[in-house]
């Protein structure tokens, strides 16, 4: 038996964590909860630890790591723990005292050690753990809400306390190639307190946010199971985006509800005992305090009611389709194709569609995913069998990489040196290096076939691309040599004659803003996006359902914006049920 999600009537703990697959509405629900509690007179702090945070878009104001009061919501303060900014502060804290004392070359080497993505995660966690254990902060607020990142990143972030407590306990050398640990040993006690706070059901609640879709629910189930392993047993499930039945239900609305019904009937066993709350699909975008408050209202909005009785308008909009993108890729003879975007926009689906269409036109294709939280469902290759499929499995790649490094170094090190190396290989950075090597090997196949890569959500994607340059020296240090595939990768990524970057988004506020930020970051890395895709669009669906009609109309402004952002190189994919025949793995 489910209930409507109404924070006002729930007994909530001081710390609330909102987690789930990218694009399920974590930010919207975290914001709505924070506003609702603040409206009740509670003093509330809302914090983002997401590398791809969009809280500033929701509240329409610039945010920093400092707590900022929201004018329209008395008692609400918001902070954005930007991991890159946190890493810069942390790096300077460690390196600063040595400037002017050590030679410049030594200082530069220290900065190099602290420039990897591990430092970003550790610095963000450092700020995050401080909030959980600082009594002065805890006593200043009735509730502290954390709007965490998509599930893959959240699992890494929230598992850091246990992982690093164990690492510090075992670290007898007092140093690591990681660098970040150099400034963290004195915080061991704080991290242990963080673990206790996370597992204290009187203090912490995990709010698993999902949509009534099978893939999102699977991620919620996985997150629930993984986080229970570190003691986060106090969990709630928020089912966001449930459809309301109306007198105007048409085929599209029926398809929405059929997908919803199928997903709920097949709810994973480990979620069936988790208290579950529903939120209805809203006809508006989640920007502005007014809309955030409306999300938790029991009433149908005036706009929705007005739209329910408005005359139908035939939408004659015509936009480029996926076939136009495929024509362009083949014309330019590009051999490496990335689909990139914020989590939940459908990168996997688009990558599959691109690969299948390329194969259908007579090309040999290899499709893969580098998303730590992703998976390609089995899909049948076409009748000509020109497509192969693979997934980079982080756990498998880490084990292979550790074995390779140890075996290669065994004859060159004494017992102490080997023990130090084995300790180094327990660091979280090892997974990134291992996955990077596998990623480079896949891209190298573009010499023989077109490679389509379904990359991770944008924050991780940028870290992955940065790694192509950063880890040249790191891999040389760890493994003794740099594979040819690694040496060649970054130039290939930057070669627009060979590589196409396809940014995938939805015709909604946050996905478009995030896509714009991703495009800007790619440009700074000298990687130019080739095409944009607006996925799962309702605008050409000709629905009579009032809610879906309003959502379709709201898409127009965002498609026009994508048109400008992409310099008219974009395609629109109509909404469809995400059911595809399966691909045989390589």
Summarize model confidence as the mean pLDDT. 78
Oligomer: single chain
Trace the largest sheet across and list its strands.
1-9-8-7-2-6-3-5-4
How far the N terminus sits from the C terminus, by CA atoms, comes to: 43 Å
**Largest sheet descriptor:** 9 strands, mixed
What is the CATH architecture assignment of the largest domain?
3-Layer(aba) Sandwich
For CATH, the homologous superfamily of the largest domain is named as P-loop containing nucleotide triphosphate hydrolases
Percent of residues in helices: 40-55%
CATH class of the largest domain: Alpha Beta
Unreliable segments of 5+ consecutive residues:
149-182, 299-305, 307-312, 456-465, 580-586
Number of spatially distinct domains: 2
Strand content: 15-25%
Written overview of the protein:
The chain is of the alpha/beta class. It has two domains: 3-308, Rossmann fold (3-Layer(aba) Sandwich), CATH 3.40.50.300; 322-397 and 434-574, Rossmann fold. 47% of the residues lie in helices and 16% in strands. It is built from 21 helices and 16 strands. The chain has a nine-stranded mixed beta sheet with strand order 1-9-8-7-2-6-3-5-4. The protein has a seven-stranded parallel beta sheet with strand order 12-11-13-10-14-15-16, with helices on both faces. α15 (394-409) packs across α17 (429-444). Mean pLDDT is 78; it is low at 149-182, 299-305, 307-312, 456-465 and 580-586.
Précis, in short:
Pfam families: ArsA_ATPase. The protein has 586 residues and is α/β, with parallel strands linked by helices.
Features:
9-stranded mixed beta sheet, alpha/beta, ATPase-coupled arsenite transmembrane transporter activity, Rossmann fold, 586 residues, 16% strand, 2 domains
């Amino acid at each position: 038996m489910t209930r409507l999600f109404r924070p006002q009537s729930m007994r909530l703990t001081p710390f609330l964590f909102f987690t789930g697959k990218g694009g399920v509405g974590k930010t919207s629900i975290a914001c709505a909860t924070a506003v609702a509690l603040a409206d009740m007179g509670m003093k509330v702090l809302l914090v983002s630890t997401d590398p791809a945070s969009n809280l500033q878009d929701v509240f329409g104001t610039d945010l920093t790591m400092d707590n900022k009061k929201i004018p329209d919501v008395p008692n609400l303060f918001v902070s954005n723990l930007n991991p890159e900014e946190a890493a810069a502060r942390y790096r300077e804290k460690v390196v600063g005292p040595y400037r002017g004392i050590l030679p410049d070359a030594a200082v530069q080497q220290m900065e190099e050690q602290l420039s990897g993505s591990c430092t970003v995660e550790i610095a963000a966690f450092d700020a995050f753990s401080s909030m959980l254990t600082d009594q002065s902060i805890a006593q200043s607020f009735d509730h502290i809400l954390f709007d965490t990142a998509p599930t893959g990143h959240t699992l890494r972030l929230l598992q850091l306390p246990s992982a690093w407590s164990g690492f510090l306990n075992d670290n007898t050398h007092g140093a690591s190639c990681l660098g970040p640990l150099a400034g963290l040993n004195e915080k061991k006690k704080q991290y242990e307190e963080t673990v206790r706070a996370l597992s204290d059901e009187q203090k912490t609640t995990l709010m698993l946010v999902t949509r009534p879709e099978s893939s999102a629910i699977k991620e919620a189930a996985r997150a629930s199971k993984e986080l229970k392993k570190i003691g986060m047993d106090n969990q709630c499930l928020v089912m966001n985006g449930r459809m309301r039945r109306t007198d105007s239900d048409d085929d599209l609305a029926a398809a929405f509800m059929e997908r919803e019904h199928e997903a709920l009937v097949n709810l994973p066993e480990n979620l069936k005992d988790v208290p579950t709350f529903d939120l209805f699909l809203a006809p508006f975008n989640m920007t502005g305090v007014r809309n955030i408050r409306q999300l938790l209202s029991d009433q149908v909005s005036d706009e929705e009611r007005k739209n329910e009785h408005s005359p139908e308008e035939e939408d004659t909009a015509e936009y480029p389709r996926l076939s136009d993108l495929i024509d362009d890729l083949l014309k330019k003879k590009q051999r490496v194709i990335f689909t990139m975007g914020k989590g939940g926009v459908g990168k996997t689906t688009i990558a599959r569609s691109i690969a299948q269409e390329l194969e259908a036109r007579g090309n040999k294709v290899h499709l893969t995913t580098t998303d730590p939280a992703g998976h390609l469902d089995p899909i049948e290759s076409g009748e000509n069998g020109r497509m192969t499929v693979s997934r980079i499995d982080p756990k498998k790649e880490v084990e292979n990489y550790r074995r390779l490094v140890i075996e290669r170094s065994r004859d060159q090190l004494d017992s102490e040196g080997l023990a130090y190396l084995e300790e180094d290989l327990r660091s979280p950075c090892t997974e990134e290096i291992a996955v990077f090597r596998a990623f480079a090997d896949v891209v190298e196949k573009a010499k023989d076939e077109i490679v389509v890569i379904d990359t991770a959500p944008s924050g991780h994607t940028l870290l992955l691309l940065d790694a192509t340059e950063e880890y040249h020296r790191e891999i040389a240090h760890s493994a003794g040599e740099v594979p040819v595939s690694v040496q060649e990768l970054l130039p290939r990524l930057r070669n627009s004659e060979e590589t196409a970057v396809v940014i995938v988004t939805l015709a909604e506020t946050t996905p478009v803003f995030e896509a714009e930020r991703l495009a800007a970051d790619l440009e700074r890395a000298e990687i130019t996006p080739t095409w944009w895709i607006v996925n799962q669009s309702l605008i050409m669906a000709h629905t009579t359902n009032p809610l879906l009609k309003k959502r379709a109309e709201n898409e127009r402004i965002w498609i026009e914006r994508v048109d400008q952002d992409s310099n008219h190189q974009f395609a629109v994919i109509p909404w469809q049920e995400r059911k595809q025949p399966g691909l045989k793995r390589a």
